[in-house]
Amino acid sequence: MVDHIGDDDPISLALAARLFFHGTLTKSSLRTEARKGNLEIIRIANKEFVTRNAIRQMIDRCRVPARNNVQPKEASAASPGITAQQAVRARLAAAKASNNTPQREPMSEADRIREKLFLESLTSRNKPKRGQ
């Protein structure tokens, strides 16, 4: 039956799910892909259809590239046995030691007051309420 369907013949979502995905996807799944912009749907008289070409394009858009087993350059340069978090901490400590941290621009008085009020509101949220 699939052989009789042309590349641009409209077929219902339910039939497309059964024919092209052997029931592993549903018409709801196809609608989700359409919402995400991966599948072009044809709507006629409030009925939704797709074509074989649209399904092929959706499959291409949804294809996930194969992962390389190549490690990033920074990971290979790091000491063996060091975690990523430890490497970041070491880089931060080195930046602080060399004083390469970017300087903040001076704040206006109004910005200082806003920051102070904001920080106070955060600390007041964390204080236990009386009677608890």
Please give a structural write-up.
There is one protein chain. This protein has 132 residues and is mostly helical. It contains six helices and three strands. It has a three-stranded antiparallel β-sheet. The protein is elongated and about 70 Å long. The model has no long low-confidence stretch (mean pLDDT 81).
Spatially, the strands of the biggest sheet line up as 1-3-2
Q: Find the count of extended strands (DSSP E, 2+ residues).
A: 3
Order of helices and strands: EHHEEHHHH
What class, by secondary structure content?
Answer: mainly alpha
Mean residue pLDDT = 81
Q: Main β-sheet, in a few words?
A: 3 strands, antiparallel
> Compute the gyration radius: what is it?
29 Å
How are the SSEs placed, and which strands pair?
Layout: E1 11-12, H1 13-21, H2 27-35, E2 42-44, E3 47-50, H3 52-62, H4 73-77, H5 84-97, H6 109-126
Helix pairs in contact: 1-2
Features:
132 residues, 3-stranded antiparallel beta sheet, mainly alpha
Q: What is the structure about, briefly put?
A:
It contains 6 helices and 3 strands. With 132 residues, it is mainly α. A 3-stranded antiparallel β-sheet has the order 1-3-2.
